[in-house]
Structure formats: C-alpha cells, structure tokens
Amino acid sequence: TTSTTTSTTTDVVSSPDTTTTTASTTTTTTTTTTTPCVFSSKVDIAFIVDVSGSVGPDNFELVRQALLTAVNAIDIGKDTIRVALMRFHSSVMIDFTFDAFYDRMFVANAIMALVYDDSQNYGTATGAALYTASTTLLDRNTGWRGNDTIVYVITDGVAQDDVAAGAPFLKNTGAKVVAVGITDLINVDELLLIASTPEDVILVSVFEDLSDAILNDVDARSNCASKTTTTTATTTTTTT
Question: Which value, in Å, is the radius of gyration of the alpha carbons in the chain?
C-alpha cells in the first residue's frame, strides 16, 4: 500500500522596497510492503535423527530434549501441523508417521519412549535414511499431505554410505530439507548435499545448543508471521 501526504507553507518577507513570497511544498510518500510466510499453518514436519554409536546415550538425551522442545512449541493437529519421526544408524527405523498422532501429548509421549541402543557401535547410514524417508515416510498412505513440508536431518558425524545417492530422492519430494550438523566432526560438504539450499544448513557446535537451534528454526518456519517493511520518502520543493 502507498499513502501520500502533502503540506504547503507560505512565508511572506517584506522590506521597504520589495515583498517576497516563498512557498514550500513537502510531499511524504510511505510505502508498506507485506511479504507472506513461506509456509502455511498446515505444514508437515519430519525429524530424521542420527542415533549411531558416535552420539552416545548422554547426547541422545539432549537430542530427545530438543525434539520435545520443538514439539511443545508448535500447533499439532490433524488439520494444522503433523509430525513424523525416523531414526537411523546402520539401519533405518520409522518411529511414527504423520498420521500416527494428531495430539501434541501423544507425540511427546512417543519421543519420551524412545530407547537409545548402545549395545554395539552402530554405523551411520545417512544416505539410506534419506532414501527411505522419500519413499516410505513422505507417502500419502502415511498421512503426508504432500504440500508444505519441512524435513530436519540431524546428524553428528560422517555418513558411511553414499549421501549423494539418497539426497536427491528426498529433495524431489518438494520438501524443504534442513541439515543440522552437530560438533566440529561433521562433514559440511555432506550437509550441503542433504539440504535444499546452503541457507538450510544449521551448524551446532555442541549438543547442548541443539535445542535452541531447532526451536528457533521450527518456530521461524512454521509459526512465522507476515513480514511488513515500511519505506518513507520525503520531497521538499521551494518556489519563490
């Protein structure tokens, strides 16, 4: 929208010999531009979580807390935000799909029930997880609506399979893929292969910071408000 305000000021200066009239016109134009959110409220959010041997039970608890914090901040429901969760190490495990729970409490309870398996030092099959997510998790038969979708891939290390083979399948679903790398052991090039764009890569230095990083991003993407930018220009014209 654009609004214009004009005001005119007239000054009369007299001397014994002459009279001078000066008119000043000031025009102020204000332009307001509104940019809509990228996602609507009906967004599907999937978490793909690395639970390989390098994570460990203590750090897994911090990952669990990050997931719970994110879930508690969004409006989960059948007609609002749906959530799905998948874990991976050497194998891929789908914990719950988009149509499993339409209530925040049930989603939180499912996350609380997750068990970290430290019976052996599992590897990291990231590429397989990405492919499985594209074919099994993001499927209309599992409650995925096929519209606005955010997929968070959370990992702390280097893949032991071919990320370049799995990543395109997930991107081709149309989902916004956000790659979250934790600690300085992460392979940034792999994150760039996973993420939809370089801006969708999140680097977290320690597991203790994961909760804030995920919360801030989830909130910005799923609960965003329209951004309004206002520009004001003033022009003054003087006539004598």
Answer: 27
- What the block records as the tokens of 151 is 């997929």
* pTM, rounded to two decimals: 0.76
Task: Give mean pLDDT, residues 62-67.
Answer: 96
Percentage of the chain beyond pLDDT 90 is: 66
Contact of 151 with 182, CB cutoff 8 Å? no
C-alpha dist (Å) from residue 198 to 22, 35, 99, 108, 191: 58, 22, 30, 30, 9
Burial call 44-76: b when 16+ CB within 10 Å, e when fewer: bbbbbbbbbbbbeeebbebbbbbbeebbeebeb
- Residue 34 confidence (pLDDT): 41
The CA distance from 198 to 33, in Å, is 27
Integer Cα distance of 190 and 91 in angstroms: 19
Secondary structure of residue 70 in the 3-state scheme: helix
Report whether 52 contacts 157 (CB < 8 A). Answer: yes
Query: Taking 50 as the threshold, does the pLDDT of residue 36 lie above it?
Result: no
CA pair distance 188, 210, nearest whole angstrom: 17
Q: Which residues touch 203 (CB under 8 Å, ≥6 apart)?
A: 181, 186, 188, 191
Q: What sign does the dihedral 137-140-145-149 (CA atoms) show?
A: positive
pLDDT single digits (tens) 159-193: 999 999 999 999 999 999 999 999 998 999 999 99
